[in-house]
UniProtKB/TrEMBL annotation:
The keyword Plastid does not apply. Coiled coil: none annotated. Residues 32-52 are annotated as: Disordered. It comes from Nocardioides panacis. It holds the Pfam family SBP_bac_1. The keyword Signal applies. This is Extracellular solute-binding protein. One of its GO terms (cellular component) is ATP-binding cassette (ABC) transporter complex, substrate-binding subunit-containing. Belongs to the bacterial solute-binding protein 1 family. The lineage of its organism: Bacteria, Bacillati, Actinomycetota, Actinomycetes, Propionibacteriales.
Length: 166
């Protein structure tokens, strides 16, 4: 994945990134390509689906927390539809109903339009221990295959070996 800073400098043609990146790309104080970029859902694959992963972070309450009820109430508040909508500036909310409210969609229409399409086939990250390390190894090995440094099979075998070390 291309770093947002390289993209803002105009050093790359495209990037797969999060919704807040679009806001930064259109901020002329930090981006050389303000007003010259767009956002789209991932392209359709052979099955017609648009492969993508929901990168949202989960909130949880520790089983040994001494304030479980208060912690849960905070999570309910932070993730509530009205609260999510109050803070929409550059991303998309977690509520489907928000995608139907013109005043919310208007805060970042290109991102909302892309999300509405992409969320139809987006999957959640796999719930595996050590996900971040496994994801990093997979990214490196896929890049090795794309650059021709390794065959696709070698790269995937090495990614599996790295994942099994976790």
């Amino acid at each position: 994945m291309t770093s947002p800073s390289r993209w803002r400098r105009g050093d790359t043609a495209f990037s797969l990134n999060w919704d807040s990146t679009y806001r930064d790309l259109n901020d002329p104080s930090i981006s050389k390509i303000a007003g010259e970029n767009g956002v789209l859902p991932t392209p359709e694959g052979p099955t017609g689906e648009r492969p993508g992963v929901n990168g949202a972070m989960a909130l949880s309450v520790a089983s040994r927390s001494k304030n479980q009820d208060a912690a849960w109430k905070l999570i309910e508040y932070l993730t509530s539809e009205p609260n999510q909508e109050k803070f929409i500036k550059s991303g998309a909310p977690n509520w489907k109903a928000s995608f139907e409210k013109p005043e919310i969609v208007a805060t970042n229409k290109p991102v909302f339009d892309a999300y509405k399409t992409a969320l139809q086939s987006t999957i959640l990250r796999p719930p595996v221990p050590g996900y971040n390390n496994i994801s990093q190894a997979l990214q490196v090995e896929l890049q090795n295959a794309l650059l021709g440094k390794k065959s696709p099979q070698e790269a995937l075998d090495d990614a599996v070996a790295a994942a099994n070390k976790e």
